[in-house]
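in:
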C-alpha cells in the first residue's frame, strides 16, 4: 500500500464560469396591472366556487320580479285614471295615498302621517264602512292568493313587512282584482 492512497481525498470542484443572471426587465404599469388583474380574477373565481359549495345546502326562495322591477313615479304624482268600480277605485286611491304619503307598520297612522294598508283604505273610504270592508276583503283575498291561507288579516300581513314594497304591490293587485270582479 502506498502512502498516497491513505491520504484523504479532497474533492476540488472544477472551476466553472457562471454568467450573472440578467436583471429582470422592468415591467410597465400596464403589465403589472394586468398581472394583478389576472391573479385577482383567479382568486375571485375560486371564492365564487367556494361560496357556491358552502351555501348549496341553504334553501332559497325564488325572487319575484315584481318586487325587484319598479317603474319610476310620474313627476306630478297624479293618480292614474280611476277604475270604474267603487271598490277597485278605493283600492287604487289607497295605493296612490301610500305611494305619495308614505307607508308604515304597527299603526293605522304613525306620528308622521304615514299609513298602513288598512289605514290608507280607511282614509280613502271617507267613512263608508261597507266600502271599506269590501276593499279590505278583496285585499285579503289578493294577499292569500299569493301568500297562502296562513295570512290571518290585512294588518298582520302589513306589520310582517319591513318595507313598503310588497304591501304596496298587494294593494295595487287588489285594485286590479276588484276591477276584474266588477266590485
Amino acid at each position: 500500500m502506498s502512502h498516497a492512497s491513505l491520504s484523504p481525498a479532497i474533492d476540488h470542484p472544477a472551476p466553472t464560469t457562471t454568467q450573472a443572471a440578467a436583471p429582470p426587465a422592468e415591467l410597465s404599469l400596464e403589465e403589472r396591472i394586468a398581472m394583478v388583474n389576472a391573479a385577482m380574477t383567479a382568486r375571485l373565481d375560486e371564492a365564487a366556487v367556494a361560496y357556491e359549495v358552502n351555501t348549496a345546502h341553504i334553501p332559497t326562495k325564488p325572487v319575484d320580479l315584481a318586487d325587484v322591477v319598479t317603474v319610476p313615479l310620474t313627476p306630478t304624482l297624479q293618480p292614474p285614471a280611476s277604475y270604474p268600480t267603487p271598490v277597485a277605485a278605493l283600492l287604487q286611491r289607497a295605493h296612490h295615498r301610500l305611494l305619495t304619503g308614505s307607508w308604515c307598520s304597527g299603526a293605522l297612522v304613525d306620528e308622521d302621517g304615514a299609513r298602513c294598508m288598512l289605514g290608507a283604505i280607511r282614509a280613502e273610504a271617507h267613512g263608508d264602512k261597507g266600502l271599506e270592508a269590501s276593499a279590505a276583503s278583496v285585499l285579503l283575498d289578493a294577499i292569500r292568493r299569493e301568500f297562502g291561507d296562513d295570512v290571518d288579516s290585512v294588518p298582520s300581513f302589513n306589520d310582517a313587512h319591513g318595507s313598503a314594497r310588497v304591501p304596496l304591490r298587494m294593494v295595487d293587485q287588489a285594485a286590479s282584482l276588484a276591477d276584474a270582479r266588477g266590485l
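note: The mean pLDDT is 84.
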